[in-house]
Every structure is written in structure tokens, then in C-alpha cells.
């Protein structure tokens, strides 16, 4: 094999069709190195052992047919472009396969060597351009993230430095003023610590670091968060509106963090005389966590951006915050295979919802 050869994995159970593909690629006069396997399972094994630049996939395999093959292959090797091959009767399925992730399709018997080689080359080029586009987007996102993070970190650091300079410049200041400056510096240091913790959480998500899953009694985790939230509430009315036993595959600490984010936001934006309600209810295959409040609500135009990093709703007497909480909540929920959304109406309050897949098990009674 020459180093410049294009490595192609051919997944084809028909020996005659496989021979024809090899002959057509040789006819094209280009350097291809072809690895032939006869089944989807053999293809998955080969992909785990070797690297390829393209995959030629028959849509009628003994262990997979139609869209099943393309779905499995694209999940196993999302970065490798796939060109599907089909008989005349399956052309509609082939078009659907392209919508499902294949780069192109060829009808057996219609393609010559040049056309087959061109389809493979174009598929590789399109996949490369797509990777480059995603890389550019990632770089731009990282630049925005760093700029936003620097901006958010600067504010508490400036406040801490200002108070320390004040203490150094005026060593004879009154004890009460000194105490006030120290308290403000301490509060800003705590804010800075929380911000750094939040940034590290988001950085884990950006790096694609997953979660360590185990079986978690979500009702117990939510109750822990609920009891903590009641301590930092200031005159709020708290109501536990149903806490059904529910188990999920997840990371306990992150799930508790999710519940605390919902509850802390509810406390932060609800006036002291307002009410906060939590419920955890089992559905068919999932469990739904809801935290509602009687705060000012969120304008409709802000709801579409509310989960963006550092995004904050502009409102009078805003209690502040990093604008990272709901971004972290989304990362946690999506990392657990769930869905997250907010429902809100101005002047009436907000409901934060997280739906997670649950483990089905019998409960006593």
C-alpha cells in the first residue's frame, strides 16, 4: 500500500458486486486501498481497528437493511464520509439515507469507474469542509467564551482590589468602615469562586468530558437540594407538590447541581412574599422535574436565548449573577439524555422543567 492511497472500507455481502467495485476503482486510475468486509458487524470491528477516509456501504446486508446500516455506521464513525450503494428498487431509500447522514449514493450498475471515484473523492472533500467549518465555529465559540469569561472575572477582581487598596491607603479608617470594606471583598471573593467553579463546569462540557453514571434515586437527590434551598430563602413560601420515587442513570452530584440551579434561580428572582413550588413526577419512560416561582417572569424575546452562556435578562433591580447557571443546567440535562425548557409569563412567574429518562422498576406498595 502506498502512503498516498485513499483508504476505503467497502461493506458489501455480494462477492460479485464487491469485485465490480474493486475493478471500477482500479479503472479510474486513482490510488485507492480497499478493505472489503461482508457484514455490518465486521465493518464495525474493522472501524475499531483501522482508520479509513471513506466508507462504501451496501444498503442490503445480512445483519442490517435499509436505514439501519447507515444509522449504525454514522454513529460508530461520525467523522468518516459514507457513500451508500443500492439497487434500482432502493433509490428512494438511498435518498433518505443521505438525509440521515450519508454523503452521497450510487445506484449499482449505473456508475462507471470515474463516477465511483469522483463520488468517493467528493464525499471526502465535503466531509473535510464540514470538519473545517465546525472547527472554525469551535474556535470562534472559544474566543467568545474567553472574552466573556475575562469580562465576568474582571468585575469581582476589580472590587476586591479596590477594597484592599482602600484599606492600605487609609490604615486609620474607622473600624466600621474597615469591616464594611472587608465584608465587600469577602463577598466578591465568594462570587469569584462560584464563577470559576461554573466556568470549570462549562469547560468540561466544551471539552466533551462526560459523566460517570450510576443508578441514582433522583427523588432523594432533589429532596436534598430542596432542603438546602429552604435555608437560603428569605421569607419565601415553599411547597413540595409531589415527590414521586424515580431512579435514573446519572451522576448524583450533577443532578443535585441541576436541582439547586432551578431552586436558586427561583429564590433569586422571587420576592420574599412569593411562592416556590417543586414537583417530581414519573411519566411513561421519563421523569419530569418542575420548579415554579411567582417572580416577574421572563420576556418572550429572552426565552430563546436564556440558556446561552453569560446571557442575563435585563430588568430593574436585577440581583445579578454570572449568567452561567442555566447553561450548566442544559449541559447536565443533555448529558443525561434529557430535555430542558422554561415556561414563563410576565408578571406571573417562571417554570423551569427538566425531563430525564428513568429506570423502570417496581416500587413497594
Automatic annotation (TrEMBL):
Keywords: Coiled coil, Kinase, Membrane, Phosphoprotein, Transferase, Two-component regulatory system. GO terms for cellular component: plasma membrane. InterPro entries: CheY-like_superfamily (IPR011006), HATPase_C_sf (IPR036890), HATPase_dom (IPR003594), His_kinase_dom (IPR005467), HisK_dim/P_dom (IPR003661), HisK_dim/P_sf (IPR036097), Sig_transdc_His_kin-like_C (IPR004358), Sig_transdc_resp-reg_receiver (IPR001789). GO terms for molecular function: histidine phosphotransfer kinase activity; phosphorelay sensor kinase activity. SUPFAM superfamilies: ATPase domain of HSP90 chaperone/DNA topoisomerase II/histidine kinase, CheY-like, Homodimeric domain of signal transducing histidine kinase. Residues 148-360 form the Histidine kinase domain. It holds the Pfam family Response_reg. The modification 4-aspartylphosphate is found at residue 58. SMART domains: HATPase_c, HisKA, REC. It catalyses: ATP + protein L-histidine = ADP + protein N-phospho-L-histidine. The keyword Coiled coil applies. It comes from the Bacteria. Its EC number is 2.7.13.3. The keyword Ion transport does not apply. Residues 173-202 form a coiled coil. Residues 7-123 form the Response regulatory domain. This is histidine kinase. The gene is phoR_3.
Amino acid at each position: 500500500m502506498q502512503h498516498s492511497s485513499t483508504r476505503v472500507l467497502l461493506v458489501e455481502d455480494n462477492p460479485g458486486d464487491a469485485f465490480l467495485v474493486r475493478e471500477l476503482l482500479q479503472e479510474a486510475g486513482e490510488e485507492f486501498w480497499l478493505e472489503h468486509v461482508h457484514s455490518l458487524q465486521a465493518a464495525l470491528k474493522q472501524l475499531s481497528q483501522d482508520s479509513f477516509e471513506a466508507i462504501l456501504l451496501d444498503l442490503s446486508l445480512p445483519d442490517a437493511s435499509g436505514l439501519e446500516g447507515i444509522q449504525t455506521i454514522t454513529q460508530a464513525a461520525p467523522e468518516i464520509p459514507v457513500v451508500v450503494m443500492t439497487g434500482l428498487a432502493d433509490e428512494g431509500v438511498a435518498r433518505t439515507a443521505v438525509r440521515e447522514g450519508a454523503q452521497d449514493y450510487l445506484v449499482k450498475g449505473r456508475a462507471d469507474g470515474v463516477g465511483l471515484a469522483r463520488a468517493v473523492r467528493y464525499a471526502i472533500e465535503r466531509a473535510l469542509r464540514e470538519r473545517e467549518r465546525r472547527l472554525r465555529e469551535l474556535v470562534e465559540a472559544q474566543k467568545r467564551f474567553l472574552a466573556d469569561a475575562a469580562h465576568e472575572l474582571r468585575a469581582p477582581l476589580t472590587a476586591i482590589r479596590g477594597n484592599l487598596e482602600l484599606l492600605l491607603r487609609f490604615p486609620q479608617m474607622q473600624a466600621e468602615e474597615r469591616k464594611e470594606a472587608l465584608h465587600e471583598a469577602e463577598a466578591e471573593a465568594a462570587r469569584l469562586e462560584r464563577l470559576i467553579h461554573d466556568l470549570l463546569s462549562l469547560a468540561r462540557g466544551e471539552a466533551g468530558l462526560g459523566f460517570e453514571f450510576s443508578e441514582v434515586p433522583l427523588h432523594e437527590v432533589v429532596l436534598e437540594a430542596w432542603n438546602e434551598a429552604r435555608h437560603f430563602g428569605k421569607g419565601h413560601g415553599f411547597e413540595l407538590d409531589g415527590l414521586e420515587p424515580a431512579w435514573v442513570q446519572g451522576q448524583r452530584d450533577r443532578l443535585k447541581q441541576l436541582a439547586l440551579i432551578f431552586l436558586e434561580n427561583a429564590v433569586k428572582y422571587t420576592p420574599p412574599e412569593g411562592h416556590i413550588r417543586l414537583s417530581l413526577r414519573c411519566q411513561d419512560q421519563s421523569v419530569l422535574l418542575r420548579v415554579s416561582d411567582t417572580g416577574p417572569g421572563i420576556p418572550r424575546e429572552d426565552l430563546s436565548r436564556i440558556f446561552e452562556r453569560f446571557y442575563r435578562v435585563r430588568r430593574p433591580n436585577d440581583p445579578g449573577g454570572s449568567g452561567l447557571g442555566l447553561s450548566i443546567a442544559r449541559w447536565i440535562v443533555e448529558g443525561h439524555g434529557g430535555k430542558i425548557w422554561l415556561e414563563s409569563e410576565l408578571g406571573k412567574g417562571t417554570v423551569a422543567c427538566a425531563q430525564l429518562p428513568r429506570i423502570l422498576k417496581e416500587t413497594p406498595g
